[in-house]
Design brief:
The protein contains six helices and no strands. With about 220 residues, the protein is mainly alpha-helical. The protein has one domain.
Amino acid sequence: MNWNFLSDWQFWLALVTAIVAIIALIQAKHQTKLSNKQHLFDQRVEIFSVAKELYDFYLRNKQQLKYDNKPISCATNLILLTQTDYLHDLFGVYPPNLGDKNKAKKDKINSEKFAKKWSEMTKISSKFEFLFDNSEDLKEFVLAYANILSSMYNYEYFWRNDIMQASKDSRSLPPADIVKIEEWKLLEEKYREPITDNVGKLDELSKKISQNDTIETITKQIKLK
């Protein structure tokens, strides 16, 4: 066998280059794996932190929430439910009053802000099933929280722009047009119903989360993964 190639510097250069390339490839693959793992970890921590904050806040304040089917309750509860770090930018955000054109620009910004946050919460909810096992309770809790904010916001919008106007109009309506007021009452019930439904869901889901130790289960998954 001819071993003369061992003395050829080009052979050794090619060999060293190949070895360096292989090592770089292995390192890159390992780095990518670590980066992906870190990204997944960050995602898990992020969405779990939001969900836990909303859950803890609800448990601390659910006794203060008043659902007595009065319009003022919706406005009060909407303020209360947004007093978290995650929802702080929604604090004091009310639906637009279409009769006040001076606030049209601000109302539009507030509406867009609310819609964006609602969309963000629903996306957070949808991620749970892909990132955690046995997380259905918390997933549904975040969605119910988003939906109760939305239903209260919609009710406030309806009340500010329809009911209040109907109330003003009723003072000048002839007796025969009182039927129109009854129609407003039916609409009010329609807007109030989703609030009642979501209130029940929040309460039911918070109990399930506690009974199933969902918070502890997910915390362990974050640590293990």
